[in-house]
Amino acid sequence: MVLDSSSPVPLYAQLAEALRARIARERWAPGRKLPSEHELCAEFGVTRPTVRQALDMLVREGRIAKRRGLGTFVAEPRPPVGLFALTGTTEAFRKQRMKLATRVLSVETVPECPLAGDVEAAGTMVRLERLRLVNRRPQLFERTWIAADLVPGLERFDFTDRSLYATLREHYGLRVAGGRQRFGAVTAENSIAKLLRIEPRSPLLRLARCMDLTGHPAALYVELFVAEGPFALEECIAGTERGEREEFAPVPAPAWGAVS
Questions:
Q1: What is the 3-state secondary structure (H, E, C) of 46-111?
Q2: Phi and psi of 10, rounded to 5°?
């Protein structure tokens, strides 16, 4: 393949796409060693800095991995995890048989939830803060707020090895009945970076959710911060036919702001 130096697309991005295509078409299978930087320079007619930029891009995407002293290899596909589904973090990882450990940081009653807008007027909430480890590495920091009058005695449960959503179903007769979520990229503030063992201001994915529980609108809120890890995020998409518009329940959207 010849790269186009007159294209507005940078050469390193063109090269990354060419290598990406080889991996996608399984010309390079997982575990295969990539050609050396010198060989890639000769094949594509580019400089070493261009090759390094392209390889760095693929490393960030999780498509390849560099092994010190050995070279660069095609990475194993990262298992997809449905964190965007409203079934809970524990269930999302359980489906992929990934080892998820939990450290409960705090469970306390607070006067309000900062994600709730004026419309909800949620009132007193139970706030649960948890650090989630995937394969023993901190990957997710999660804050959950639940209307306190719906979950009396929630503090007595140990959520180290217990699913919150299963507890709501089994002990309080509450199920998630729908909701709305927003997500976007943020930078890690110091306290979250320390928990996740990353550098301050490192990129994170932030999910903010507002959910209905059985018969109780806008009763549960979640704020989830996700660091890059050994998994890919996945969401199933349902389509509509004949141009029909898909309607959503009018659940108030959660507040969307900077990391707090």
A1: CCHHHHHHHHHHHHHHCCEEEECCCEEEECCCCCEECCCCCCCHHHHHHCCCCCEEEEEEEEEEEC
A2: -55, 150
Closest CA to 213 of 157, 144, 159: 144
Question: In 128-223, where does DSSP find H-type helix?
Answer: 164-172, 190-196
Can you name the residues that pair with 109 across neighbouring β-strands?
A: 126
Instruction: Count up the domains in the chain and report the number.
Output: 2
Same domain, 199 and 184: yes
87 and 158 co-located in one domain: yes
What is the C-alpha to C-alpha distance for residues 194 and 216, in angstroms, rounded to an integer?
A: 36
CA-CA distance, 143 to 200, in Å (whole number)?
19
Q: Is 224 part of a structural domain of the chain?
A: yes
Cα–Cα distances in angstroms (integers) from residue 7 to residues 2, 45, 196, 198, in the given order: 12, 15, 40, 37
8 A C-beta contact, residue 72 and residue 66: yes
> Is the overall model pTM greater than 0.70, yes or no?
no
pLDDT digits (tens, 9 = 90+) for 200-248: 988 898 989 898 998 999 999 999 898 876 555 655 545 444 444 444 4
179 and 62 within one domain: no
Q: Are residues 26 and 95 in the same domain?
A: no
Say if residue 22 is in the same domain as residue 97: no
